[in-house]
């Protein structure tokens, strides 16, 4: 029962062994053939020698989440060989190196096995130094011949990848050919899947990861101060900015229109962007959960004194070190209520490359518009795994600086300016920045209690008024932030809500449920605080399942807090083992939840 | 008319143009005297308050920026984080003149890490520590600058080594390090003027007695004990300058230090052989003073011409905060090229 363009290949290797490059070439080749595909890198928190798995999924139907079934397993890691073989589906295909294999791996009789002498073949690679790394390219060669990836495609991808290094291209190609020739000479075949070129498929599409698109979005969003402290999985966001900024953001005198500061810790990073935001820069930081914890005090100051600042949080398994290289959506409440005292924040929830790009700019815009810290909540799966997308589109190029006013504005309004006064009922006051020469522009910014004129005050009335206005601002954000995408079907009694990296798996799970005759509606949540549309959606359905990658249903708890009357109408589907969520788990857990309720 | 004019500076501003809100410090608190010296320094140097930003952390000392230069923008940050917030503010707008006030607790305890890193960067910033050896605002606990052997009001003796912020600053690479005393306006005001004129980070550790919690018998930072053990290394004079003059370090009894903006600091030596440009010498003298129970004051260390943080970042011209939109947005053409590259 061989498929066309439907396969999930898992490659198990020790990390740091050069397999990343081989896997990348293989994945890009399938993409280049025009086949819908996606990849998931499940790597350890380690630099060399610990087990890592890379999954490449080709899906003729165009589903991009991690597949719950492994069709092909490449075992190149002796340490995990035995358990890796166990993960393979019935009739699946095991590919292994006959020179580095243990008896126990071969005990399963319900699978196909192809052993090839990778270690032996690699001895033909003349340069001994790169031999062990290039041994990985041999499985690329074996897979390409077995599944139908042409030499031309491979060469094109090698050229794209290694560009102007012909010797690297050549050595890689040689290793690939050792594998493919072995397949041809031994006339080995498989009946799992054939990869067939789709003319025009993937045409114009890009391959990238969320962090890269966020970095680009922030650069196009006019970020001018970036402060950060290295932490997985957010480092690559800041590092990608450092890569692109010199190219994109030099003025005509070759002076940078930005500053990137690697801070001494996350406390400093948050302090730096708060200072920069107060002084009028478009400022951001990127971190993950542990960094967010350290930033908490500063976030409170910025919230209370209304300083624009953007926090890009790429979530991972917590707490503390937790599972630093695995994915989760478990910092939602840490962001939502970050800091002490009465706080409540705005969070943007991107779910694909375009929203990573768009919302990064939007994050800077909203921070300026709302004069508050705004969070961009990504996660490791979305941030770091390579996936295809339509080209990035800059939908609203101009920068929104909100109610930032200058000398002439103060003049125009009769030489009046009150820093913390709500002029027009949206809770958002006007703002001036240092350097403004108007005598009325100056105010003293303080985390201490203050009144509408920014004068220090411990008056209970002033304090309550301020807290209420800040809440009003948060209510304004319910409609100002991106509104959820709703896909309803008149006949469905079941609603599903998902966000971030779960959205793609939920799409596929709903497809499967639909095939079982269970119709569902779906709401893609794009931001917090919740839009009133979420309430409408939940009200319309008998039951709404909220899918999240955390243990306690953090978004569901916000729904219950906002609308306690809806508490009985929602339930949670929770996946939190740290691996990218699969459609299978969402499907199974959803059916379990629904079982007792509707069916 | 002509009489009033005598009290105007080069910008035609009067001293009162440098005042702020009424102080809420305890009567006689050293911090108030420092605020007065700050006002005087800005007035004497004819600095436009609209070009100044004021920063602080949290503590009694950190409240004081509200009490000077009411016409300047200011920000009270969180405890110990003025250095980080200042870093961001100065990077966002390097064209303004920043001054910060912190306490010894704010700087030497909770904020020590960030303080050290700010120094390493040579941020163009005047950083004043109002050092009373205790946490004033939380009612008199020891801070990390409390001298070894000093006693709290209720008798508790500090057994730990004190952090000498001047010594630390020199070690971390500060380019202007001074110590002074709140009660010595003749020395303090010109030192602040010099610090403001210095291009790079200026640390001023100013002894500032807490009259409420640390002014008793047995306290080494009481007004009486400080006065009795002051050891100025030179008399200092400051002449704000406009034109740049050749740098000239005279030998003999007078040292003239010409600052970046042409201002001249004249140091009349009281210590034979003290050279404020000798790093190791400065550290040795600070140590000797500590052993002798003395408070060495004056311009302790000075190093001109090291690139500031914003210079290291190549930030020049218009402040980042004031860049117009077209400077902040790359062209769509570039995005097309990036898309193309990512599409292989
Ligand atoms: C995170 C945090 N911890 C503790 C405090 C309480 N606190 C306020 S001021 C202060 C000490 C201030 O001492 P110092 O900096 O020496 O200033 P002084 O009052 O002596 O001028 C402390 C511990 C705080 N505000 N924030
Ligand atoms: S408690 Fe001490 S430091 Fe604070 S205002 Fe009073 S005298 Fe000054
Ligand atoms: Mg103190």
Question: Would you give an account of this structure?
Answer:
The complex is a heterodimer of chains A (599) and B (344). Chain A is built from 19 helices and 23 strands. By secondary structure, chain A is of the alpha/beta class. The model of chain A has no long low-confidence stretch (mean pLDDT 96). Chain B is globular. Mean pLDDT of chain B is 94; it is low at 243-249. Chain B has helices at 2-5, 30-44, 60-63, 82-92, 104-110, 112-121, 165-172, 185-197, 223-229, 279-291, 309-312, 325-328, 332-343; strands spanning 52-56, 73-76, 97-103, 125-131, 134-135, 141-142, 176-181, 201-207, 230-232, 234-239, 254-258, 264-269, 295-302. Chain B has a single domain (15-312), classed as Thiamin diphosphate (ThDP)-binding fold, Pyr/PP domains (Rossmann fold). By secondary structure, chain B is an alpha/beta fold. An eight-stranded mixed sheet of chain B has the order 2-1-3-4-8-7-13-9, with helices on both faces. In chain B, strands 10-12-11 form a three-stranded antiparallel sheet. The chains are: A alpha/beta (599), B alpha/beta (344). At the A-B interface, helix 1, helix 5, strand 9, helix 7 and helix 8 of A face strand 2, helix 4, helix 6, helix 12 and helix 13 of B. Bound molecules: thiamine diphosphate, iron/sulfur cluster and magnesium ion (MG). Residues 58-61, 79, 103-106, 130, 132, 134-138, 143, 210 of chain B line the site of thiamine diphosphate.
């Amino acid at each position: 029962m061989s498929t066309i363009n439907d396969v999930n290949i898992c490659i198990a290797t020790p990390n740091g062994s050069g397999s990343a490059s081989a896997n990348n070439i293989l994945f890009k080749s399938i993409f280049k053939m025009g086949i819908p595909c996606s990849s998931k890198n499940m790597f350890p928190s380690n630099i060399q020698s610990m087990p890592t798995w890379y999954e490449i999924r080709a899906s003729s139907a165009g589903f991009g989440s991690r597949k719950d079934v492994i069709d092909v397993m490449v075992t190149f890691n002796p340490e995990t060989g035995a358990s890796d073989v166990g993960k393979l589906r019935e009739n699946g295909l095991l590919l292994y190196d006959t020179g580095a294999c243990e008896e126990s791996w071969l005990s399963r009789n319900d699978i196909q096995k192809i052993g090839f002498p990778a270690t032996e073949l690699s001895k033909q690679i003349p340069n001994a130094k790169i031999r062990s790394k290039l041994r990985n390219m041999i499985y690329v060669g074996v897979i390409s011949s077995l599944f139908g990836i042409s030499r031309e495609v491979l060469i094109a991808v090698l050229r794209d990848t290694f560009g102007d290094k012909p010797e690297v291209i050549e050595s890689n190609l040689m290793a690939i050919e050792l594998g493919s020739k072995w397949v041809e000479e031994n006339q080995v075949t498989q009946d799992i899947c054939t990869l067939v070129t789709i003319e025009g498929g993937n045409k114009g599409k890009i391959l990238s990861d969320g962090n890269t698109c966020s970095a680009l979005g922030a650069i196009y969003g006019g970020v001018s101060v970036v402060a950060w402290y290295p932490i997985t999985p957010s480092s690559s966001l800041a590092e990608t900015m450092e890569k692109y900024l010199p190219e994109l953001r030099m003025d005509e005198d070759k002076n940078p229109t930005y500053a990137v500061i690697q801070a001494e810790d996350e406390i400093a990073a948050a302090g730096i962007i708060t200072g920069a935001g107060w002084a009028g820069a478009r400022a951001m930081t990127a971190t993950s959960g542990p960094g967010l914890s350290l930033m908490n005090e500063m976030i409170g100051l910025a919230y209370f004194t209304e300083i624009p600042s953007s926090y890009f949080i790429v979530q991972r398994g917590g707490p503390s070190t937790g599972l630093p290289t695995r994915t989760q959506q478990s910092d939602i409440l840490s962001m939502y209520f970050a800091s002490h005292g009465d706080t409540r924040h705005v969070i943007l929830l991107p779910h694909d490359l375009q929203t990573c790009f768009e919302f990064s700019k939007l994050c800077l815009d909203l921070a300026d518009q709302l004069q508050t810290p705004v969070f961009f909540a990504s996660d490791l799966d979305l941030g770091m795994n390579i996936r295809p997308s339509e080209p990035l589109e800059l939908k609203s190029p101009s920068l929104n600086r909100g109610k930032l006013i200058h000398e002439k504005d103060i003049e125009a309004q009769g030489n009046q300016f009150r820093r913390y006064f709500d002029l027009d009922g949206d809770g958002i006051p006007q703002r001036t920045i240092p350097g403004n020469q108007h005598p009325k522009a100056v105010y003293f910014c303080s985390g201490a209690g203050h009144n509408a004129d920014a004068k220090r005050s411990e008056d209970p009335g002033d304090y309550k008024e301020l807290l209420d206005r800040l809440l009003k601002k948060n209510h304004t954000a319910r409609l100002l932030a991106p509104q959820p995408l709703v896909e309803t079907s008149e006949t469905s009694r079941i609603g599903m809500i998902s966000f971030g990296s779960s959205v793609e798996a939920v799409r596929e799970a709903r497809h499967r449920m639909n095939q079982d005759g269970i119709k569902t509606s779906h709401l893609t949540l794009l931001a917090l605080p919740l839009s009133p549309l979420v309430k409408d959606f939940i009200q319309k359905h008998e039951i709404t399942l909220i899918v999240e990658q955390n243990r306690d249903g953090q978004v569901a708890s916000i729904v219950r807090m906002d609308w306690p009357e809806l508490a009985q109408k929602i339930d949670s589907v929770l996946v939190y083992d740290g691996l990218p969520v699969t459609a299978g788990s969402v499907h199974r857990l959803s059916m379990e939840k629904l079982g007792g309720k509707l069916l | 008319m002509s009489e009033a004019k005598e009290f105007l500076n080069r910008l035609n501003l009067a001293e009162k143009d440098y005042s702020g809100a009424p102080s809420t410090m305890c009567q006689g608190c050293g911090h108030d005297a420092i605020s007065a010296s700050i006002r005087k320094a800005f007035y004497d140097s004819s600095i436009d308050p609209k070009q100044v930003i004021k920063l602080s952390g949290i503590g009694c000392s950190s409240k004081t920026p509200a009490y000077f230069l009411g016409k300047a923008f200011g920000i009270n940050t969180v405890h110990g984080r003025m250095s980080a917030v200042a870093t961001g503010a100065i990077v966002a707008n390097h064209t303004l003149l920043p001054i910060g006030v912190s306490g010894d607790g704010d700087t030497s305890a909770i904020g020590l890490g960030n303080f050290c890193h700010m120094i390493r960067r040579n941020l163009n910033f005047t950083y004043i520590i109002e050092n009373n050896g205790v946490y004033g605002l939380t009612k008199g606990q020891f801070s990390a600058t409390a001298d070894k052997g000093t006693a709290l009001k209720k008798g508790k003796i500090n057994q730990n080594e004190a952090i000498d912020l001047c010594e630390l600053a020199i070690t971390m690479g500060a380019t202007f390090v001074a110590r002074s005393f709140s009660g010595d306006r003749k020395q303090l005001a010109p030192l602040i003027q010099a610090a403001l004129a210095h291009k790079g980070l200026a640390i001023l550790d100013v002894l500032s007695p807490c009259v409420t919690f640390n002014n008793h018998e047995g306290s080494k930072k009481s007004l009486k004990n400080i006065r009795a053990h002051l050891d100025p290394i030179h008399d200092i004079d400051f002449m704000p300058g406009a034109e740049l003059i050749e740098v000239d370090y005279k030998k003999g009894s007078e040292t003239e230090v010409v600052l970046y903006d042409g201002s001249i600091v004249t140091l009349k030596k009281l210590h034979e052989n003290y050279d404020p440009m000798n790093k190791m010498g400065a550290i040795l003298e600070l140590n000797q003073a500590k052993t002798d129970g003395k408070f060495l004051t004056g311009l302790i260390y000075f190093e001109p011409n090291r690139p500031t943080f914003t210079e290291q970042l190549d930030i020049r011209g218009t402040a980042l905060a004031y860049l117009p939109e077209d400077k902040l947005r790359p062209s769509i053409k570039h995005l097309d090229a990036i898309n193309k590259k990512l599409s292989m």
